[in-house]
Write a structure and sequence with these properties.
- The complex is a heterodimer of chains A (132) and B (212).
- Chain A has 132 residues and is an alpha+beta fold.
- Chain A has helices at 2-8, 19-38, 58-69, and strands spanning 11-12, 43-51, 79-85, 88-91, 97-99, 115-119, 123-130.
- Chain A has a domain at 18-86 and 120-130: hypothetical protein PF0899 fold (2-Layer Sandwich), CATH 3.30.2320.
- Chain A contains three helices and seven strands.
- In chain A, α2 (19-38) packs across α3 (58-69).
- By secondary structure, chain B is of the alpha/beta class.
- Chain B has a single domain (11-210), classed as Rossmann fold.
- Helices cover 35% and strands 22% of the residues of chain B.
- In chain B, α1 (11-27) runs parallel beside α4 (96-103).
- Chain B starts with a strand and ends with a helix.
- In chain B, 47% of the residues are buried.
- Classes of the chains: A alpha+beta (132), B alpha/beta (212).
- Chains A and B meet through α1, β1, α2 and β7 of A and β1, α3, β4, α4 and α6 of B.
């Protein structure tokens, strides 16, 4: 009885092969809105600000972009141009900020590990380039 | 021709997450997001803890996230709590829209907490806000004491960490000191819970943490 109920509420929700796929899908959803509203026939380039802390592998994102746009003739051959937003960590104790280059959460000034991510989680579609 | 868009792509997920937070707040239901590798013992922790929490009077529902099968949901259903399985296909994490949709399967007025067991993965689920009150990291002794340093993000976001399979420490080179040092270098206020789902050792403090 219980098992039957479990099976009946099983959902199949496809999100893609990795988190890059979710991110590509999110970018595409935003871009489609812009293409539709402007009635544009050919997409060339999408300028994206990508937070370093999102942990995106650029090559994977490109691959996912290709896969997700392949069914829309307007977008075939379009490319993503990424601007990386560096990760900045901020200390709650002394307000020092530092770049996350070496993946350390310990404050270089006061030596305490009590921090939050100040910057580096953005995912913005800044602009698109379309054929005139 | 260039067209300004200036859209936050993650906003869609964030809106779903905020809606979930708001809904559960009005219902007085707490939401926990359990994150850990496949095989860390996430389902076993639930199997151990749910009967203990129920004994204390807690009314619990569970959302299970896996790529495939309803195996985990079937295990949880035997504990006689409401459970929904989400299969993500090849997806490596749950997102806020999925969680928002399945919350409708539960009678929220009859619940105190909903526990999400995220897709087994120490990395990707961390980046997707589900609207939970907190993320809980689950890691097992057999994964090694260096994992917080190698996969730090979840240990930075999770205030509570459950270390499972502690009965296996004598048979491995796992150093609790190295593990604790690694955790503290990421987040000094981390709460560490040592647990063996085989022997039940360490369950009391966890029950207290989730149902004070």
């Amino acid at each position: 009885m219980l098992k039957k109920r479990v099976a009946s509420v099983t959902l199949f929700l496809y999100t893609g092969c990795m988190h890059e796929m979710s991110i590509a899908a999110g970018i595409w959803s935003t871009v489609v809105d812009a293409l539709d509203s402007g009635g544009h026939a050919k997409l060339l380039n999408v300028e994206v600000t990508l937070g370093e802390y999102l942990g995106v592998v650029n090559e994977s994102l490109d691959l996912c972009w290709e896969a997700i746009t392949m069914d829309d003739p307007r977008a075939i051959g379009s490319v993503l141009t990424l601007t990386l937003e560096p990760t900045e960590v901020a200390c709650h104790q002394c307000q020092q900020t530092w770049l996350f280059n070496d993946h350390r959460y310990t404050c270089p000034q006061c030596g305490v590990s009590d921090s939050h991510i100040e910057r580096g989680q953005s995912l913005f579609v800044n602009q698109i380039e379309v054929e005139e | 021709m260039e067209i300004k868009v200036m859209q936050n792509v993650l906003k869609a997920n964030d809106v779903f997450a905020e809606n979930t937070t708001e809904l559960l707040k009005t219902k007085g239901v707490r939401l926990f997001n359990l994150i850990g590798s496949p095989g860390a013992g996430k389902t076993s922790v639930l199997e151990l803890m749910i009967p203990l929490l129920k004994d204390k009077g807690a009314r619990i529902a569970v959302i299970e996230g896996d790529c495939a099968t309803a195996r985990d949901a079937q295990r949880i259903a035997t504990l006689d709590v409401p459970v929904v399985q989400i299969n993500t296909g090849n997806g490596c994490h749950l997102d806020a829209s999925q969680v928002g949709k399945v919350l409708g399967e539960f009678s929220l007025d009859a619940l105190d907490m909903v526990i999400i067991e995220n897709v087994g993965n120490l990395v990707c689920p961390t980046g997707f806000d589900l609207g939970a009150d907190e993320k809980i990291a689950i890691i097992s002794v057999t994964e090694g004491d260096d994992k917080p340093l190698k996969y730090p993000r979840i240990f930075h976001e999770a205030k509570a960490v459950i270390l499972t399979k502690i009965d296996l420490i004598p048979y491995t080179n796992f150093s609790l000191q190295r593990f604790t040092d690694a955790l503290r270098s990421i987040r000094q206020d981390q709460e560490l819970f040592l647990l063996s789902c085989t022997t039940g050792e360490g369950s009391d403090p966890l029950v207290e943490r989730f149902w004070p």
